[in-house]
Amino acid sequence: MTANEKAKAKTEQVTGAAKEAAGRAVGNERLTAEGRAQQAKGDARQAKEKTKDIGKH
After folding, report:
1. 43: which residues sit within 8 A by CB, 6+ positions away?
2. CA angle centred on 18, ends 47 and 28, rounded to 5°
3. Which whole number is the average pLDDT over 29-47?
4. Which of 17, 18, 23, 36 could pair with 28 in a Cys bridge, judged by C-beta atoms 3.0 to 4.6 Å apart?
5. Measured in whole angstroms, how far is the alpha carbon of residue 4 from the centre of its chain?
């Protein structure tokens, strides 16, 4: 996994978690859903990069 892609994945996951928590705290379902979606995007990016790494070995 390249360091840049790994950082992007982690950033998306953390930002998504923060958005989801903020959305829940204020009762904003749109923000909560956005946070979940951003976390999923980060998870997918991380999985893609791990798959690339497995293919290299």
Report:
1. 9, 13
2. 115
3. 97
4. 23
5. 14
Are 32 and 17 in contact by the 8 Å Cβ rule? The answer is no
Phi, psi of 27 (to 5 degrees): 75, 25
pTM: 0.82
Average pLDDT score over residue span 26-55: 93
Angle formed by the axes of helices 3-26 and 29-56, to 10°? 160
Residue with tokens 């904003």: 28
- pLDDT of 55 above 90: no
Cα distance between residue 18 and residue 54, in whole Å? 30
Tokens encoding 21: 């928590």
